[in-house]
From TrEMBL:
Alphabetized InterPro entries for the sequence: BTB/POZ_dom (IPR000210), RCC1-like_dom (IPR058923), RCC1/BLIP-II (IPR009091), Reg_chr_condens (IPR000408), Signaling_Regulatory_Domain (IPR051625), SKP1/BTB/POZ_sf (IPR011333)
Gene3D superfamilies on file: 1.25.40.420, Potassium Channel Kv1.1, Chain A (3.30.710.10), Regulator of chromosome condensation 1/beta-lactamase-inhibitor protein II (2.130.10.30)
The protein's name in its UniProt record: RCC1 and BTB domain-containing protein 2 isoform X6
Signal peptide extent: none
PROSITE patterns in UniProt: BTB, RCC1_2, RCC1_3
UniProt KW keywords: Repeat
Annotated organism of origin: Callorhinus ursinus
Parts forming coiled coils: none
Length: 549
């Protein structure tokens, strides 16, 4: 569980107060301000209160937590902060509130007066639901549920994306190349802005003096521009440091560019990069923290341990972090006065800890979420009861092993069981169509809404999901397969995608094979490829120019 006590500012809180925290954000030029929510949905603030950034109505510092009554009843969905600092907060209902430093109109309320209390920002956003927020040093971005980006604030380098360098006092939709695009993720560096669209392309604008836009130049960009160097690469997430950028692809690869004086790009040197450069985590299997023997021996350890599922950076720091599918957390860049030029394996279990312990200042790169220790939600209670023989009234016999379940839950959760168990009084059901790991994962999914399988087993679960017409489970299987694809299993997964008519997965596996064609064609899977599949693969590969010199 995340330990907020690793941030020095929380040393001002009592142990009893720390136990109540459920969300938190540490910010400020020295990490000396914090906002947090409690188990009772109350919002508290603490710290030096520069420019009124605590939202209490004054500029007085406080060494004891004070409740932020002006946001009473509001639940926080996401939060970001600038260098002033200023705060941009979105609620679970999609409303936006801002307060704090406002010399450059970064609060979006049409003035340049510091905001001492949270102000609801509705201009041009009144009919919009905001789902994500991001702050640069003195400018702000928000993303709406329909994929639109709005920006305001300091614009000396075009970071608002309006085409000029005049400051923007109220929210204005970022247009240009983004006008007909659906944006799914946003981020801000000190004076630049980034957006990822649903096709995996990355658009950038603003300051580019360190090459942080990834355009191969150092000229500023006043309107959104697509990063051409990422052509053919589907990006899922983007994260910005002070003057460097990280992106995460759908294949779990990280690319970095921009300022590199502290090694924050993780490429083994301190030279700035104006084009995206791949960042590699070590693949030494000795780093694996899985129990011995390995629980998934058919899933290559190196692939699992090095596939990235999360990237982290913060505009106030020169530090980078990443987490692998195997649970390893790496950091690089500025680290307690040192420059770490290659990804370094830490002992942490989450990227948040990197910024608490290594970054300068010790801030949080996102809104922290703290899970409670004792109270169980309905979902957690159901998860605990899966395969519990003490409460179950039904057991499945699969491959000679029992899986314990509850008839009422199965009927509520699955159409197949709704009909098959309607008049069935038996307490044992024999299952021979699917393997034990696959069927157990299916039943566990009905209790937890999640799956935990290596990609090869997920193929069998995909077969089951197709057979039972469980479309959401089918999507989860495809996602798991995507995360676990490697050169050795790519052809097998492509074959499965074709067999089960998973078109999105088929396209993903095909692109992976093309991007790693030399290695893939040397695997046993390729040598044993079905004749018709091989014929179609070669034909499609030739059409996309895979065999050109």
């Amino acid at each position: 569980m995340l330990d907020v006590g690793k941030w020095p500012i929380f040393s001002l809180c009592s142990e009893e107060e720390l136990q109540l925290i459920r969300q938190a954000c540490v910010f400020g030029s020295a990490g000396n301000e914090v906002l947090y929510t409690t188990v009772n949905d109350e919002i508290f603030v603490l710290g030096t209160n520069c420019s009124g950034c605590l939202g209490l109505g004054d500029v007085q510092s406080t060494i004891e937590p004070r409740r932020l009554d002006s946001l009473n009843g509001k639940k926080i969905a996401c939060l970001s902060y600038g260098s002033g600092p200023h705060i941009v907060l979105a609620t679970t209902e999609g409303e936006v509130f801002t307060w704090g430093h406002n010399a450059y109109s970064q609060l979006g309320n049409g003035t340049t007066n510091h905001g001492l209390v949270p102000c609801h920002i509705s201009t041009n956003l009144s009919n919009k639901q905001v789902t994500e927020v991001a702050c640069g040093s003195y400018h702000s971005l928000v993303l709406t549920s329909d994929g639109e980006v709005f920006a305001w604030g300091y614009n000396n380098s075009g970071q608002v994306g309006s085409g000029s360098t005049a400051n923007q006092p109220i929210p204005r939709r970022v247009m240009g190349c983004l006008q007909n695009k659906v944006v799914v993720n946003i981020a801000c560096g000190q004076m630049c802005s980034m957006a990822v669209v649903n096709t995996g392309e990355v658009y950038v604008w603003g300051y580019n003096g360190n090459g942080q836009l990834g355009l191969g130049s150092s000229g500023n960009q006043p309107t959104p521009c697509r990063i051409a160097a990422l052509q053919g690469i589907r990006v899922q997430r983007v994260a910005c440091g002070y003057a460097h950028t990280l992106v995460l692809t759908d294949e779990g690869q990280v690319y970095a560019w921009g300022a590199n004086s502290y090694g924050q790009l993780g490429i083994g040197n301190k030279s700035n990069q104006s084009y995206p450069a791949p960042v590699f985590m070590e693949k030494d299997s000795s780093c694996c923290r899985q129990p011995s023997p390995c629980p998934t021996p058919d899933f290559p350890c190196a692939a699992r341990c090095s596939r990235i599922i999360e990237i982290a950076a913060c505009h106030s720091a020169h530090t980078s972090a990443a987490k692998t599918q195997g649970g390893h957390v790496y950091m690089w860049g500025q680290c307690r006065g040192q420059s770490v030029i290659l990804p370094h394996l830490t002992h942490f279990s989450c990227t948040d800890d990197v910024f608490a312990c290594f970054a300068t200042p010790a801030v949080s790169w996102r809104l922290l979420s703290v899970e409670p220790d004792d109270h169980l939600t309905v979902a957690e209670s159901l998860k605990r009861e899966f395969d519990n023989p003490n409460t179950a009234d039904l057991k499945f016999l699969v491959d000679g092993k029992y899986i314990y379940a509850h008839k009422v839950l199965l009927r509520i959760r699955c159409e197949h069981f709704r009909s098959s168990l309607e008049d069935n009084q038996d307490d044992i059901v024999e299952m021979s169509e699917f393997s034990y790991p696959v069927y157990r994962a299916f039943l566990e999914y009905l209790y937890t809404d999640s799956i935990s399988l290596p990609p090869e087993e997920a193929v069998g679960l995909l077969d089951l999901a197709t057979f039972y017409r469980e479309n959401r489970l089918k999507k989860l299987c495809q996602q798991t397969i995507k995360q676990g694809i490697c050169e050795e299993n790519a052809i097998a997964l492509l074959s499965a995608a074709v067999k089960y008519d998973a078109q999105d997965l088929e396209e993903f596996c095909f692109r992976f094979c093309i991007n790693h064609l030399t290695v893939v064609t040397q695997t046993s899977g390729f040598a044993e490829m079905d004749h018709d599949l091989l014929k179609n693969f070669i034909s499609k590969a030739s059409r996309v120019g895979a065999f050109k010199n």
